[in-house]
Amino acid sequence: MLVVSIVIRRPLVGVLWSVANRAPLTWRHDRSSAFGYDLATAAAAAVFGARFVVQNWLYGEDLTGWLAFAKIVMGYPLTVVAVLAAAWAVRHASRNRPSAAAVRSGASSGR
What we know:
By secondary structure, this protein is mainly alpha-helical. The chain is built from 6 helices and no strands.
């Protein structure tokens, strides 16, 4: 689902952030903001994909000790990496988006 959201140009991290903040999806029109959300969504997809592949293989090989170790190592540490990527994307998109005051002043001056 994460990769599909990138392919259809609606990265799930950006959509969820906009919904959570009741903000419009105006970031989609800014290439660098959309790219940042693409990267954050790709990072989340990589984390979940790696977790699935490794743990599924260990389960299939009946390596329960290593499976327990992988679940611990690939749990919170990799999730933190995905959250940091999402936080970077949100900051990057917020920096590139004009403030509401700038939009109002530009609209009132006839530009």
